[in-house]
Amino acid sequence: MNRTFSIIKPDATQRNITGSINKIIEDNNLTIVAQKRIKLSREKAEGFYAIHKEKPFFNDLIDYMTSGPVIIQVLEGDNAVEKYRKIMGSTNPENAEEGTIRKKHALNIQENSVHGSDSEENAKIEISFFFNENEIISN
Ligand code: CMP
Fold first, then answer.
1. Is the dihedral of CA 106, 36, 42, 124 positive or negative?
2. 49 CA → ligand 1 middle, Å
3. One digit per residue, pLDDT tens: the chain, 139 residues?
4. Cβ(107) to ligand 1 under 6 A?
């Protein structure tokens, strides 16, 4: 049993499809053990995506991630990091497999509806960037 960090992004909150995304998560045996709807500050978004600071899409990414509410989540289950990456599908929805969140909902490579941690180590870092341990309540 382990955990991953998830963000349901502004394109999804904007279109009222967070329930549909949560259903896909739960149908795949991941449990939402923490969840908050927040508005990211520029500072927080830049800190979270610091690894992409030199990328050409960085400024657009920060504009987008601060453009509306996001839902931040901790997901728990067997192989949570790997499993959620599979359920999300490729970063670019054009390459995402049938049945994935991004294939179903993402608009383009930037407005791709969800973020998930890419490793166990980053999951721990990302979770603690947004949540205190006492806010995470397992079944
Ligand atoms: P995410 O998995 O949250 O990680 C970085 C985000 O940058 C990515 O999802 C997209 O929302 C956004 N992005 C925009 N352009 C690109 C790109 N060319 N390659 C990767 N990510 C991109």
1. negative
2. 10
3. 899 999 999 999 999 999 999 999 999 999 999 999 999 999 999 999 999 999 999 999 999 999 999 999 999 999 999 999 999 999 999 999 999 999 999 999 999 999 999 999 999 999 999 999 999 999 9
4. no
